[in-house]
């Protein structure tokens, strides 16, 4: 994810070539670019626009509509805290406040060591064992502030071993 | 020490994983190895008794014995006390799984296989009635399939409760200029407190594949899409595994079971947008656009995906279809009451002792679910408010908990069943904070097309903040009511049109929370 800009665009071109034949290809293309690069570099917008025969404004409009797509590089890990009702009922508001304070960032912010980006999410489907947090592709339940700190410490020491 | 292979079941469901199932599976395998025992660990779906996750089951001649919730510390003592023989003396032992009252009292039609099978095993699926509905459908013409669905009385499980058979009839009758119709499964499951769609996809994905294929046969569609929320990485993985296997085995593809009929299926991911659960916004998103809601008419059944006739159905609606085709529409209609026929998987969530999935015929009361199944709050404090049906539906005070769970009874008290989610709050809840959140959620998730929704929700947050700060309370309460009315009557879809319902219910049933300065732990963000 620290790849230089010149190395990003060949990846973008590959993804477009692989997926542009699909009906309604734009979301699959954006997802795959973000999967591989961590974000959608603004430089990729003209390439996508050209290959799908759409305007740059169209592509940009889609990227900005969806909460998931980002135009800047995230930290090494993404931590999403669930803000929705079933998690609220089990202390999500306190957990959110704790997450922001202990990481020293607000939502969409990245820690100064570039390790963790904090995001909000509305429901991870783990509502019977809330509050819930997602760390990259792993979902964790019954997250107390103490457990949150342990999870974050785990990310800092590189080994993602939850629970 | 024994030489026989013992079969152990450890779920690969999201909640089981969120409570440590993967790590537990590794540690149990290692412990068995250390003790010289041969075990086969099957990664099943969840039974839906989430308060017991991770729930481990051991196969014995008498049936499967359950242990839960199991954590690392318990592994040693479980082995010592005869886990592999299904000994019942350990404190975590729950006895025979099927005899646990929470499960035993349910009426599982859609979730009949959930947690019993390996979700991606085609053999497991077929041993328990899998693909029987499809085989019957392949012998029927489209109209006969649609008639069977009509006879079941099935109403859409995504929230709007529209009769599924009538929707299918419209698509069957519609003429496609391009000779192309589509089946779209709405797997966006955005409502907090719901996880039944997720459980179908993670515990029994072939049932959804079968239901969609039958829908395709019914209306003459050979392409299906599952629009899945990206917040469900586990379901994504399992669905893709299942689709690959079903294709390889001839249950999907150009020539389904040598019938000469085709059906193709692809999973498409959403990108964190609640509004994309609304069916026309979903179709826009599938077409690669912003998820802006379309005006209806035309109905998606007539002008749907890429302008072609399209069935859009919720996961649970489609998942009910294999049963209906296999056992007959009447068998399904024998469950339920009034115009709410069949079963609904209720989902108990939030501050509840025994959260999980409870599939029952319509008509059970909310209180039975909260007390008999749920066992009260997780925190042990008194229950105060219950939000049923998702973020666009009302909060119910205790005086309404005896309402039977069916579409009409809930409507009669100004509430809705929605997708069957039940979120419980204890007496520490601040209902003005909850009302504020409803408006805040609408600000975050509105597609932006209509002013009452886009701007009204922003004003709603501000007005509730003023009320919470004790500024000109009476005038602002009136303003809030006006705002709610404007949103209800001036919005194109239920996002703006129903956001006021939880707000108004909070004001009506919990007025005391709007009459005093807000607690400091409120919803300010
Ligand atoms: C704001 C909004 C969000 C919705 N979210 C969902 C959803 O997540 N899942 C779903 O199946 N239906 C959702 N719906 C309902 C769909 O628009 C549509 O009624 C449903 O997919 C039809 O399928 P059914 O007839 O099988 O219920 C939502 C509706 C609105 C207005
Ligand atoms: S009510 Fe809201 S979400 Fe629905 S169409 Fe209008 S602006 Fe979009
Ligand atoms: S509300 Fe947080 S996981 Fe569903």
From TrEMBL, chain A:
What are the binding positions for [2Fe-2S] cluster in this chain?
A: 82, 87, 123, 127
Any Pfam family from its record, for instance, is 2Fe-2S_thioredx
Please give the CDD domains that the UniProt record associates with this protein: TRX_Fd_NuoE_FDH_gamma
The annotation note on the cofactor reads:
Binds 1 [2Fe-2S] cluster.
Q: Provide the species name.
A: Amphritea opalescens
- Name of the protein: NADH-quinone oxidoreductase subunit E
Sorted alphabetically, the keyword list is: 2Fe-2S, Iron, Iron-sulfur, Metal-binding
**Family per record:** Belongs to the complex I 24 kDa subunit family.
InterPro entries to which the protein is assigned, alphabetical = NADP_DH_HndA-like, NuoE-like, NuoE_N, Thioredoxin-like_sf
One of the entry's Gene Ontology molecular-function terms is: 2 iron, 2 sulfur cluster binding
- Which cofactors must be present for this protein to function? [2Fe-2S] cluster
TrEMBL record, chain B:
Asked if the record carries the keyword Iron-sulfur, the reply is yes
Annotated Pfam families: Complex1_51K (PF01512), NADH_4Fe-4S (PF10589)
Xref: PROSITE patterns: COMPLEX1_51K_2 (PS00645)
Q: Name one GO molecular function term.
A: 4 iron, 4 sulfur cluster binding
Cofactor requirement: FMN; [4Fe-4S] cluster
Query: Domain named NADH-ubiquinone oxidoreductase 51kDa subunit iron-sulphur binding: which ranges?
Result: 432-477
Arranged from A to Z, the UniProt key words for this protein are: 4Fe-4S, Iron, Iron-sulfur, Metal-binding
Q: State whether keyword Membrane applies.
A: no
What's this protein's family per the entry? Belongs to the complex I 51 kDa subunit family.
The name this protein carries in UniProt is NADH-quinone oxidoreductase subunit F
